[in-house]
Structures are given as C-alpha cells and as structure tokens.
Amino acid sequence: MVTIKERLLPLLTEMEPDGILFRPVEDDEDIWYAVEGCQLTPEQRECVNSGGFSLGRAYLHPERSLPCLICRPDGERIGFILFTEWLGEGEASSWSYFIDVRHQGQGYGKAAAQKAVELLKRAYPDRPVKLSTEVFNKRAQALYISIGFRQLDELDGDDLVFAL
To answer: 77-85 and 130-133 as β-strands: parallel, antiparallel, unpaired?
Structure first.
C-alpha cells in the first residue's frame, strides 16, 4: 500500500508556490514552530487540534499522516497543516490546519485550503475530501462552503462533517 506521504511528497515539489507552499516538517525548528511558535487566539485554540497533538498523531500513524508547515514563497512559516487519511466512515482524505494569528486576515487560510484540496485531489482523484469542525466554528464552516464543500448528515464525534 502506498502511504499518504509517498503520494504527496512528489506533488509538493511540483506545485507552484502561488502565494503559499507546503513543506514537510523536517527538523527541531519546524517542530518548535508547529508546537509553540505558531500562535492562535484563545477561541481558535478551542477549535483545532494543537500542533503538538497533530505531530503526536503523525508520529503514531506515519503511514497515514504528513505534517507540513504552511509557508510563504520566501520560506517564512505562517501556519501548520496535517494531511491525513480520514478515519471515519468510508475512504477519504483530510487535513487539519491553522494559520499563525500574525498572518490571519491576509487570505492565507483560504489559499491553504484551496491548495490542500488541489493537492489531495491530485494524489487521490477518486477519493472524497472530508473535514470536520466544531459546531460553533462558523468561520471554518463558511470557508469550507465557499470553496465547494457541503455539510454531510454525519458527525465526527460531536463535530460537523463536510465533504468535497
């Protein structure tokens, strides 16, 4: 079986860095940034898994996870994203991500979501992309809908599920 890492890594180098790029977490500095350096608002911390939790999940399940930094084309780190295999019903791809509060409001979140869709669709053309979000995270829900996701009649724990 080909892992998510084996499918995505070659595509990461092929994709144009139009505004942002994804770069695999490679060293201690990247880990520090994902865990401590990338700051979120208190409200956002209630909505997303922390960088430490996501890196732990990737460590435990390397065959179905690829942790990456979200960077500007000049290499500056602006966020974190974890590409994963969907663990709920059916075979699907997924991600969870966040943008550093110092870079929010500049279109990076939407650009990262669109690029993540493009990447996963190229890697798995016949597989849906699913995301989950807290019921109260209206901002994420609006973003997902704006890029073509629709809400499903299923839950991931107590989170809403969206698919493309």
So the answer is: unpaired
List of residues 6+ apart from 45 with CB closer than 8 A: none
**What whole-number distance in Å separates Cα of residue 162 and Cα of residue 131?**
5
CA dist 130 and 163 (Å) reads: 4
Phi and psi at residue 91, in whole multiples of 5°?
A: -85, 125
Sheet holding 77-85, edge to edge: 21-24, 65-71, 77-85, 93-99
- Dihedral angle at the C-alpha atoms of 65, 160, 136, 133, nearest 10 degrees? 10
Q: How far apart are CA 113 and CA 31, in angstroms?
A: 21
Instruction: Indicate the DSSP class of residue 100.
Output: -
- CA R_g for the chain: 15
Structure-token pair, residue 121: 């669709």
pLDDT tens digits, 90-144: 689 999 999 999 999 999 999 999 999 999 999 999 999 999 999 999 989 999 9
- 25-69 pLDDT, tens digit each: 999 999 999 999 999 888 888 777 888 899 999 999 999 999 999
**What is the distance between the terminal CA atoms of the chain, rounded to a whole angstrom?**
24
What residues have CB less than 8 Å from 44, skipping those under 6 apart?
A: 98, 101
